[in-house]
Amino acid sequence: MLDLIFSAGPVVKLVLLILLYFSLVSWAIIFYKVAVIQRAIKESDRFLDFFWTKKRFDLIGQGIKEFSHSPIAILFREGYHEMLQLKKKSADPAESGDFSLKMETTEMVGRALRRATTQETQRLEKYLTFLATTGSTAPFIGLFGTVWGIMDAFHGIGTTGSASLAVVAPGISEALIATAIGLAAAIPAVMGYNHFLNKVNILIGEMDNFSQELLNIVGRMEQGN
């Protein structure tokens, strides 16, 4: 295999280097996303248990630092921070005419939760586009290397005037390596992309559900006041 790679033409070697880059970066992203998403899922589960056990926003806010990698905990932090800011402004006579205070607390907290959801979604989906790009382009890059290698092989046949298997086989085998490497780079990338996208969608659904639950609680608190 190494002999075929080193004996390949310069264009095929360039294609193989590009595919090697795509493959190494894809594997690095896969290992990174495994750690990030698994940690986000575990800490989110722990935070939900903590949230429904404590039930008081002040106690939950005090322990929020233990769940810094949970997107759901970050949603609560942003929503609770918005509530504290509104409460502080309402208690300040100098800011009693502020337009934001004329809006419902639920609406303001909802906006903060939507902003946080967008930011966390972008964080969780970070680098997934590279996996998608690798999965869609690597086979074609490898195919380009194969076509170019076959063209070189036929050019060699025309130059030597011999079409024997001994002359054709080395050139064809060198060319096919590019397709094989392209598939080797694309398959893990596609599998990783689909797996992580599914996990991210699950987390997004959990964030949406938590946001609705939190807004319902805030709405009941507002009505109680």
TrEMBL record:
Membrane topology, as annotated: Multi-pass membrane protein
Subcellular localization, as worded in the UniProt entry: Cell membrane; Membrane
Start and end residues of each MotA/TolQ/ExbB proton channel domain: 101-208
GO annotations of cellular component type: plasma membrane
Top-level taxon of origin: Bacteria
Pfam families documented for this protein: MotA_ExbB
Membrane-spanning residues: 12-32, 127-151, 171-193
GO biological process terms, semicolon-separated: bacteriocin transport; cell division; protein import
InterPro entries for this protein: ExbB/TolQ_transport (IPR050790), MotA_ExbB_proton_chnl (IPR002898), Tol-Pal_TolQ (IPR014163)
Family note: Belongs to the exbB/tolQ family.
Protein name (Swiss-Prot/TrEMBL): Cell division and transport-associated protein TolQ
Organism of origin: Desulfuromusa kysingii
